[in-house]
Please model this.
Amino acid sequence: MNLSFFKQKILINKKEIQRIVVRVLWFTASALSFAVLVIWLSFYLFDSPREKMLQRENNELKKALKEVNEKMNLVNLVLDDLQERDDYIYRAIFETDPVPKEVRYPFLDKSLQYNDLSHDEAVDLIRTTNHRASQLMVRLAVQSRSQDTVAQLAKQKETMLQSIPAIRPLKNMSSISSGFGMRYHPILKTLRRHTGIDIAAPRGTPVYATADGTVSREDGGSGYGITVIINHGYSYKTLYAHLSKKAVKPGQRVTRGQVIGYVGNTGLSFGSHLHYEVIKSGTPVNPVHFFFNDITPKEYDEILESSKKINQALS
Model:
């Protein structure tokens, strides 16, 4: 009897131990699960102070890179204007070929890419900025060499330069009423090509020759009213239309800055103004690009900005 009782006691103790072990294991598993959950929440849902600091630095870096790229956009615009002048004005003046595209843009070669960097947003911005900086350095170097070439040509062609339209036809003009290019016709009210620029001025305002040359016997046409055309040589001509009267005669030799007539409203004209054209090799070109001998950068910017407006021509 005592032996049987002892065996039952041992069996009960084993079951109790098993229940305790199970409870301990369950508690341990629950604690581990809770710990894992806390760690996951800490790492993935909440940023540490260091992570917050790095995030702020990353945002500041991206902002700074974007500002640098915006400034590069402005530099590119300036370079585009310099290259346009270089290819189509300065080099055209000296009758030399424009700089070849492969020389101006050697960075089109894929060797200047930065493909070894990773692809997150910040590094993409760095790659773009580095690439654009390389492009600007090459473009500036090419443009600098080109300007040196043009300067050398200028020394050899001082006489020719006197025959290139290089000043404003009216003194102290700071804006243009209607620019070169597509403008609304004052009568037809449709967009048509405007082959010169219109400069509003009071009747009788003196008009000046913009370069040395000889007054032509050509007639500008009835729509232009009283007109003076000057042949400057070197494939250049200038036209001054809607004058109230002339101050020169056909065949007369004139010099840059000489009065050749006075502003008026003759011909097909809406209001007192001067219509001025620069003609290169028989083709009208934008006269604004030739205002560089008697003008400040600020004045040029004001004239250039006013010439871009798509408005109604005065003639």
